[in-house]
């Protein structure tokens, strides 16, 4: 089994696509106006309009109602990302911080309120834990 993607359901696909294109520095693929994918080497972030929810089962997802998932991405330099993202991140949850498990991280919310974590392993143990994961 291979992990394919994480999909965010939203009422404003264009707004989230624009946001994540800025965060990731990649252009989204748009096979339909109600759906987009940001494809990166390690994962794909899919964004679907709330109009697509009935295709999966009525009430199976609710736009902008996430309170339990953190979307995480490993980066090369958290502090540089923090500086780069300052102009357009509206809600910072955590400024650059080294976590107890050895990752340096920043956390912020996307326009729908989803929590996003950019991190880099910085301690010897954390670097070892992530070695071989691409």
Automatic annotation (TrEMBL):
Pfam families named among the record's database cross-references: Glyoxalase
Residue ranges of every copy of the VOC domain listed in the record: 2-121
SUPFAM superfamilies, sorted: Glyoxalase/Bleomycin resistance protein/Dihydroxybiphenyl dioxygenase (SSF54593)
Matches recorded under InterPro entries: Glyas_Bleomycin-R_OHBP_Dase, Glyas_Fos-R_dOase_dom, MMCE/EMCE_epimerase, VOC_core
Keyword Metal-binding: yes
Origin: domain of life: Bacteria
Record-level GO BP terms: L-methylmalonyl-CoA metabolic process
Molecular function GO terms recorded: metal ion binding; methylmalonyl-CoA epimerase activity
Keyword vocabulary terms for this entry: Metal-binding
Protein name (record): VOC domain-containing protein
